[in-house]
Structure prediction request, 150 residues.
Amino acid sequence: MLPSSKQLPSTKILNSTIASQRDSSSLRDGDESGGYESIGEVVASGAMTCNSDEGMLVQKKDLSFYVTTICFLLFSFCIAMIQNDLGIVLALVGATGSTLVSYVLPGLIYVKVHKPLDTSKICAYVQLGLGCFIMPTALYFIFSGINEHD
Prediction:
């Protein structure tokens, strides 16, 4: 066991695995010293391995993350190469990213996390709706050129 008095839950699980491995190996082999002595021995022996299905799931999540990231980078690169004035790029980032982070995501997360309908959840719905109104409105003004100072 680990010498610390406070242990993380994952450490407790590993320690119980070590103890069960020690008990089963001493019964199985008749070895009095039996089993694993440390977490490092458990990991090194391969007793604690990941399920292959879980590994595939992680790889699929990683693949979608990389595809999305590459698409955003290519889209940003194309806009930067086409536009002479990068002010429009900054306006697009402000209209979409800032509105998403400031209005849409906090309201959406609050609505998903808190189940009972009360005043604060109604305010979260209002914030979410306001963000969904501001973003297309700002994009309309950017693309229509109404706010040009020329």
The longest helix spans residues 52-82. Residues 25-34 have pLDDT under 50 and may be disordered. The chain has three domains: 9-45, 51-82, 85-150. Residues 9-45 form one domain.
